[in-house]
Amino acid sequence: MQFKIREGRLADAEAVGMICYEAFKMISQQHGFEPDFPSFEVARDLLLTLLSRPDVYSAVAESEGRVVGSNFLWQDSTIAGIGPLTITPEAQSGRVGRGLMEDVLEHARNKHFAGVRLVQAAYNNRSLSLYTKLGFEVRELLATLQGAPLRIDIPGYNVRVAVVEDANACDSLCRKIHGHDRGQELRHAIAQQTAMVVEHEGRITGYATLIGFMGHAVGESNEDLKALIGAADSFAGPGFLLPARNSELFRWCLKQGLRVVQPMNLMSLGLYNQPSGVFLPSILF
């Protein structure tokens, strides 16, 4: 397939939204999993938001005047996040996916990001192979967890809605655990009133931008994450992502009745610091 790659436009939202919805639906159903996007409208609205954000670079592939795929680079942190990458079924075995990945990686290099990361569906052999060939390394096996809200309080760990005055303490905690903060993402979540903090012995010991697919969390201990998970009103999207090697927290979640809905891989290229505390990644990283 002959194709070209250009920067995305708002007018692409319908086309790339349909491709995104159909691509995720097809691969997930082939493997017996629920699609990440429940409807075309949800996929379209997400990609319309990405196409309109100045801190997100978009790449669109065209063949014979028709959109056949897209990819996105989130540029709101020291580390850049990639995705979603989706292409039409007829382009699956061609070079389109590689071309879209190489385009956003070149953009990341030109912007001098310390590293790039993504989260990949572990059952998708094709994308796992592509990302590995491009130099990515698997850093964490993730379990996507979903279920009814737990409504559990952890004694000594108070959870409340985050406010702007909490941001610096949360940034400091994130830097302590990951080596970098996610300040812009955090402040956006505070403005949207989805962010929460957990306090223990009079200080902030954990926070979450959202307990769900698009949110991340960090904590000094598993008790912090238990408190945040226990206080969540729902687990947005397909669920929240938990590193499977955190056996204590994983078992606790399962004992509370949460279920694994799909396995995923956190992958990185460039700078990666082994986390020095507990965390929940977002679908980006």
Automatic annotation (TrEMBL):
Signal peptide boundaries: none
Keywords: Acyltransferase, Transferase
Domain N-acetyltransferase: 3-155
Entry keyword Disulfide bond: no
Pfam families named among the record's database cross-references: Acetyltransf_1 (PF00583)
MF GO annotations: acyltransferase activity, transferring groups other than amino-acyl groups
Keyword Transferase: yes
PANTHER family assigned: AMINOALKYLPHOSPHONATE N-ACETYLTRANSFERASE-RELATED-RELATED
Protein name according to UniProt: Putative N-acetyltransferase YhbS
Provenance organism: Nitrosospira multiformis
Lineage: Bacteria, Pseudomonadati, Pseudomonadota, Betaproteobacteria, Nitrosomonadales
